[in-house]
Amino acid sequence: LIGRSEIAEDLLFPSLEVLRPIPPIAWFPALTIILFNQENIVRFIIFLAAFFPILLNTIEGVQGIEAEYSQAASSLGASSTQSLRHVVLPGALPSIYTGLVNAMGLAWVSLVAAELLSSTGLGYYLWNAFVSNAYPDVIVAILAIGVLGYVSSALIRWLGAMQLPWLQSETV
């Protein structure tokens, strides 16, 4: 919506830009008051970390589509929904997948940080190993985070390559 409508961009983008520089983990204290449940807090922090890279890349992808393509679709009788489905979405998908890959990395960083504070998960395991001087476990946790991050990003790249066969996998 923001990428297609100047009015929506003028109304929504400034408030989103105010929220964007706030580190997702900074929301933890306020979220403990609102959500109570540690798992929901971690999920929301991950959502915040992933949201902005996906949003910004999607906006750039939509705005990067030549206006003539949508006009051509309209002149051929396409409705706005058909134009969105057959022109805008395919044109923006490379940027969306780039945002997804970037978001995955930030999601992992935020997940580990949130787990450090929530006393659960791999982040907590890492911290607990550190304070217990169990350095081999620290290394195992770091490597596990790295491997899981790599696999999740590779999965997104693979899905992008399947959905965008006309692009080389390095661009997704």
Give me the secondary-structure topology:
Layout: H1 6-19, H2 28-34, H3 38-63, H4 67-75, H5 80-118, H6 121-131, H7 135-163
Helix pairs in contact: 3-5, 4-5, 5-6, 5-7, 6-7
CATH topology-level fold name: MetI-like fold
Largest sheet report: none
Task: Please give the CATH architecture.
Answer: Orthogonal Bundle
- Shape descriptor: elongated
Low-confidence segments, given as residue ranges, are none
Specify the CATH homologous superfamily.
Answer: MetI-like
Beta-strand content: under 5%
Cα Rg: 20 Å
Describe the structure.
The chain is mostly helical and 172 residues long. It has one domain (6-171): MetI-like fold. Helix content is 78%, strand content 0%. Helix 5 runs parallel beside helix 6 (121-131), helix 5 (80-118) runs antiparallel to helix 7 and helix 6 runs antiparallel to helix 7 (135-163). The chain starts with 5 loop residues before the first helix and ends in a 9-residue tail after the last helix. The model has no long low-confidence stretch (mean pLDDT 88).
Quick summary:
This protein has 172 residues and is an all-alpha fold. The chain has seven helices and no strands.
Task: Give keywords.
MetI-like fold; elongated; single chain
